[in-house]
Amino acid sequence: MLEPDDDDCLKITDAFLRAYWERPEVAPIEESCSAELTLHRELVGNPRRTVIDQDFATFADPDAVENYRVVLDFRDRLVAAGTIESAYLRLFREGAVTIPPIFIDQMAQILARHIIGSSRDPFRARAAELLFREQQASLMDGAILLGDKETVNILGVQSEKNGGFGAMGELLVEGGIRPRQVELDVLLEDTAAERYWPENEKFDTVLDLTFARPGLDALCRVLELWVHHLLQAEVNIQPVPQINDERWVWHIGLDVEATALLNDLYEAKDIDEARLENVLSLFSLEFKDPSLMRPDIAGRPVYLALCRSDDGRVRMKPQNLVINLPLAPKS
Questions:
Q1: Same domain as 183, residue 264
Q2: SS3 label, residue 89
Q3: What does the radius of gyration of the chain's CA atoms come to, in whole angstroms?
Q4: pLDDT tens, 178-219?
Q5: Rounded distance, CA 102 to CA 82, Å?
Q6: Which are the contacts of 80, defined by CB distance < 8 A and separation ≥ 6?
Q7: What is the pTM assigned to this prediction?
Q8: How far is CA 329 from CA 147, 279, 317, in A?
Q9: Is 152 contained in some domain?
Q10: Which domain, by its residues, includes 298?
Q11: Do 315 and 245 lie in a common domain?
């Protein structure tokens, strides 16, 4: 429903806007009044139609009015921005975020799939899911395993310790759920493609994010593509076992917990062992062209962190990476 422009940014089309007027939140129901039916029909026909307060004057359902206003606000932001990329960046650069989280995740999903492009690398595709879907993390035998949180919540009923499905079973147990018997696998190099792609939208594979394994490398490459596409800046991101830098000048948390942890580490505060155990990975980001950085810190690495919460949830905020990088002011 979207069309890339000359800069490979995704142009907002009528087909894309029309899809939002067909969402269940605003699609007519049996009880919909004639005013609602008329407005909906006109918006489907012309998804950029200007809507004024008078259009809602005879709506019978105030909840329907509120739903329309929420979608209209998002639609107007998309139309004003012209592309998904511009809409996403403007949303966070302008400060207060008022649109529903589901719309933000949808934009991130669209962008994540777009930056992967024609790549058939299942590890990159699975790693990109972190940009728009919450994960459940488990630490087992030195491995860091991530399963899709919604999938973990939906799954199974009775079973023994892990329901016979290994790593995902452990994730379910840690999430407080007793799983049923289903096939859910950790992506492995020799079988990843055949396991991931046929049913990738089920979000039912486990990503191994352990240091020096393909999953973590794939996440680094996805984050590099994310920065390059949205900021036109080439960066190199590598996992690091620790931050040991007396000239540490900049850091970015990739989630709420990571932001708080890096702030405390930077200020040399004592960190208890439980918080450190929630660190899934640390990263070093370097600009290939240091002139793109703020002059006072040009050439210095930017440290990143990804953490899980105390209950094992991983909720990445990919906007942090593009909003908080120390870019040089534009002339």
A1: no
A2: helix
A3: 22
A4: 444 344 589 999 999 999 999 899 999 999 999 999 999 999
A5: 20
A6: 87
A7: 0.90
A8: 39, 32, 23
A9: yes
A10: 214-323
A11: yes
